[in-house]
Amino acid sequence: MAWGETSVWIDGTENAPLYQDLLDDAAARPARDAERKKIIRPNEMPWEMSRQGLLKHLINEQMNTRMETVDAYMQIVPPGSKSGKHRHLAEECLYVLEGRGYDLHQDCDVEITDEYFWKPQEEVKRFEYEAGDVVYVPPNTIHQHFNADPDRPLRLISTINRIFKQCGLNDLEQIENAPEYDPSLTLTPEVIRGFLRGER
Q: Does the keyword Amino-acid biosynthesis apply (predicted)?
């Protein structure tokens, strides 16, 4: 043959229907999607006692919903308390449902090669907010939420793009745990009501 590299590229005997698998997946998708939830009821939204704090997952890729690109949870920060502190590569948007508080944000200098290299900048910025506000967290920013009210809970809706993770960029790091974090505690409506009242 005319190409000098033929002796190299023509090697191999393994066959696989990879393109056909893509066609089959595309053909089966409408039926598969019809089985996925477009409405999620409160009793279908799992609670989590997480290192970041008290979460109620609204949309998550493990919840069999039609949402392909976004994860969302409601976070409850008890009166006078704070969330955990973490950093992730994806940007985040939070809607303040109830209460008042503030965020501390610390930007990082980042280099992405085969590994992530990040270094926190010196400045820590404070952003105050109240119910009805939207809080933006830039990519790769160390951040933490604080409830500024000693008597009432702070409730936030967090949304984040899961495409970063699907692209191999799930650079999520927990730096500090929420004060309420107790992996042995199972969250129930009764337990959550105790946190809302500041009893726990």
A: no
Residues 6+ apart with CB under 8 A from 186: 49
Please tell me the distance from the alpha carbon of residue 176 to that of residue 85, in angstroms, as a whole number. 5
Helix (H), strand (E) at residue 170: none
CA 92, distance to chain mean position in Å, is 8
Per-residue pLDDT 10s for the chain (200 aa) are 566 777 788 888 999 999 999 999 999 999 999 999 999 999 999 999 999 999 999 999 999 999 989 999 999 999 999 999 999 989 999 999 999 999 999 999 988 787 778 899 999 999 999 999 999 999 999 999 999 999 999 999 999 998 888 887 778 899 999 999 999 999 999 999 999 998 87
Question: What CA dihedral angle connects 98, 103, 109 and 111, to 10 degrees?
Answer: -30
Structural domain of 106: 42-196
Total number of domains in the chain: 1
CATH number of the CATH domain containing 129: 2.60.120.10
